[in-house]
Amino acid sequence: MPVVTVEGRRLTLTRLDKVIYPDGTTKGELLHYYASHGDALIPHLADRPLSLLRYPDGPEGQRFFTKNVPPGTPDWVNVADVPRSGGGEPLRQVVVDDLPGLMWAANLVTELHTHQWRAQAPGVADRLVLDLDPGAPATIADCCRVALWLRERLADDGLAAYAKTSGSKGLHVLCPLRPTPSARASEYAKALAREAARALPGLAIGEMARRLRPGKVFIDHSQNAARKTTAAPYTLRARRAPTVSAPVGWDELDEVAEGGDPASLDIRMADIAGRLAERGELMRDLTRASAARPLPEPGEGRPT
């Protein structure tokens, strides 16, 4: 097992030749991806307790969430106490703030999921997320149409929106917020999802009931709840192919919404270096406090 030094920290990397994805992608290639793109990913993880969806034998093997710090975690990996919603002893969760921590987490073969709040302020959201999930026969092109509507609607309330693929079937729309209670962010997101459903009948739905979802894009607002997490930008996903939850430009969504190739939004590990070189880090401002804007006060703005 090779031992490497990353920014002064010694790491043991295991089973680098192990095939993780059915297309032949190995664990070594997965680790190389994270090592190469830490500059883009780490700002989206910094200060945020992580939930780790582990898939050590690949996406078709066992998959399980780890929230508490795993046994054997090095003492130099940052951790945070996270209150439990029902009280009792807090959870101890990993926080990845640097490249050694990222490589340690990547060696576990895991999706990286974050809360919408930071470790020092549990339950105080500094970003909003809307998860667009197409119910067959709806497609990602339908998600693009809903995302573009949401972008304009959020702008009406002074909020800047950024989009990324989910790495699965749909899209995520995120906004940087001035710190606000997660309950308030959840309330706003729920009202916005319902407004979108009224404005886009036959295309969007804001209700949880699965029987209503076929042929429509479900706007999942629930991930704004303090206890929920969302796949981080640039994380690999536990899918049959090494897809990435990748930031995308609004021009890309507009093109697909207008009939362009939906496969252009099937973004994989091998695509990220070229995208960063060509387009830069499209979600950089999501991590900047200067980009954050307040939610409208109740009774202001349009969601009710």
TrEMBL record:
Asked if Transmembrane helix is a keyword of the record, the answer is no
Ordered alphabetically, the record's keywords are:
Ligase
Top-level lineage group: Bacteria
Q: Name one Pfam family in it.
A: LigD_Prim-Pol
Q: Which residues form the DNA ligase D polymerase domain?
A: 26-281
Mention one GO molecular function.
Answer: ligase activity
List, alphabetically, the InterPro entries matched. LigD_pol_dom, NHEJ_LigD
| Protein name per UniProt | ATP-dependent DNA ligase
